[in-house]
Specification:
globular, N-(1-d-carboxylethyl)-l-norvaline Dehydrogenase, domain 2, binds 6-phosphogluconic acid, Single alpha-helices involved in coiled-coils or other helix-helix interfaces, 19 helices, alpha/beta, 10% strand, 8-stranded mixed sheet
Length: 469
């Protein structure tokens, strides 16, 4: 029997789609699953592609069916299930073999697992995979964190199955150990912010301008070309224009307004804060999902305080410019987190390459990412600019679009319509362009009640104020 190039363990939606993608690209794939009765139906559905796939009910047979050094990709729930599978499979592996966790995992756990397995001579890869089921099947965007040796082994397969942008595969080794999962986490944080900004624009058009879902969908349709072009805009236009087959109403109008979350957005915020960063647009997006859960309170408070009234909403063209500014600012915050993590963990992340990987295949793919890739390359050459806000191309774009964001946020605030992510992005921009801020007063207060000391603008050293006098 011919040995397989790679083993895929976990035949849920994403694992099945990746296994089929690998087989379609000519790789021999061994598959297995905790519930072994999933294997036969998967092979049935694979049809002619099943010729390149061998299913194994027993873990030992699955491992024995792999070419050495072995590559085993797990697409299973993160956390304890991953640790259980590592414990089960490692005794069957040999030095130099690679275990890949291709799920959304907490990068801290990925770092711990990498260190544990490295001590046993095994490679552990944290692979961020984006693009949902369709992406996994036809070309995901992938962010690999792991050793150079494991990348050499994985690379031909990863590049063959990944999405491509202008012929360049949207996959790369971004750094060691947890770097891939970290970058994927921040991708998801940006995804949360982008989705929330879009939802806020929808809210302004629905509640401020009194537009119907289909009309709003048509506005998003109009943004599908040009600077706002993105997968999430396409998705939004389609969702808003879909009709519920049961009632004939707009589908979006019969969907309950409580958003779920699996945790990656929250991880982004937690890690950003630990790194001394504040990704306020992403924080607002995570927070807004939590607020959405408080349905009963929202109803009671609307009855008590009244609903926001119709507002004088800016035209669609202004909303589009505001969207452009807020989206750019949310991305800039995401890249600031990546920059901080790169320094803290000594990862040497190539931020421009990360933007390139995100140009196709992933959920946040957009024209903006192509422009950001160029801007980040130019920042490499002029590191003193420090921030995407100041990068060539981006600064001019902000200058042109921030006034619209200010107009939209102002109109929303005046009408009482919530725009937490857009206003947070705007506040960040305003804080970042304020050469003289207000933290001098914070320092005075800290020194007053805690004798924490402060630095003066006019002389060196640590100083205290005359509070006791
Ligand atoms: C992707 C997505 C994918 C998924 C996340 C976020 O890049 O393909 O980010 O990983 O959508 O699970 O989901 P939640 O919104 O449930 O947190």
């Amino acid at each position: 029997m011919q040995l397989a190039d790679i083993g895929v363990y976990g035949l849920g939606t994403m694992g099945s789609a990746l296994a089929l993608n690998l087989a379609e690209n000519g790789f021999r794939v061994a598959v297995s699953n905790r519930e072994s009765d999933w294997i036969a139906p998967f092979l049935d559905e694979a049809g002619p592609m099943a010729r390149g796939i061998v299913g194994h009910a027993r873990l030992a047979d699955f491992v024995a069916g792999l070419e050495r050094p072995r590559v085993v990709l797990f697409m299973i729930p993160s956390g304890a299930p991953m640790d259980e599978m590592i414990a089960a499979i490692t005794p069957m592996l040999a030095k130099g073999d690679t275990i890949i966790d291709a799920g959304n995992a907490d990068f801290n756990e990925t770092r711990r697992r990498s260190a544990d397995l490295a001590a046993q001579g095994l490679h552990f890869v944290g692979l961020g995979v984006s693009g949902g089921e369709e992406g996994a099947r036809t070309g995901p965007s992938m962010m690999m964190g792991g050793s150079v040796q494991s990348w050499d082994r994985l690379r031909p397969m990863a590049e063959a199955v990944a999405a491509r942008f202008a012929g360049v595969p949207c996959v790369d080794r971004v750094g060691p150990d947890g770097a891939g999962h970290f970058v994927k986490t921040v991708h998801n944080g940006i995804e949360y912010a982008d989705m929330q900004i879009i939802a806020e624009l929808y809210g302004l058009m629905r509640d401020g301008a009194g537009q119907e879902a289909a009309e709003i969908g048509a506005v998003f349709d109009g943004w599908r070309e040009g600077p706002l072009q993105s997968y999430l805009v396409d998705t939004t236009a389609a969702v808003l224009q879909a009709v519920d087959p049961l009632t004939g109403q707009a589908m979006v109008d019969v969907i309950e307004d409580r958003a779920g979350q699996k945790g990656t957005g929250r991880w982004t915020v937690i890690e950003a804060l630990k790194l001394g960063q504040s990704a306020s647009g992403i924080e607002a997006a995570v927070g807004a999902r939590s607020w959405s859960a408080a349905k009963e309170v929202r109803h009671a408070a609307q009855a008590r305080f009244g609903a926001a009234g119709a507002a004088d909403m800016p035209q669609a063209v202004v909303l589009g410019q505001a969207f452009e500014a807020a989206r750019l600012l949310a991305h800039a915050q995401g890249f600031s987190i990546l920059r901080a993590a790169s320094e803290a963990f000594d990862w040497s992340l190539d931020l421009a390459r990360i933007a390139e990987i995100w140009r196709a295949g992933c959920i946040i793919r957009s024209r903006l990412l192509d422009d950001l890739a160029v801007a980040l390359r130019s920042l490499d050459a002029a590191p003193e600019a420090q921030s995407l806000l100041l990068a060539p191309g981006m600064a001019a774009r902000l200058e042109a679009s921030v006034p619209a964001l200010r107009q939209v946020v102002g109109a929303a605030v005046a009408a009482g319509l919530p725009v937490p992510a857009m206003s947070a992005c705007l506040a960040w921009f305003d804080a970042m362009r304020q050469g003289r801020g207000t933290a001098n007063l914070i320092q005075g207060q800290r020194d007053f009640f805690g004798a924490h000391g402060f630095r003066r603008v006019d002389r060196d050293g640590d100083h205290h104020g005359p509070w006791g006098a």
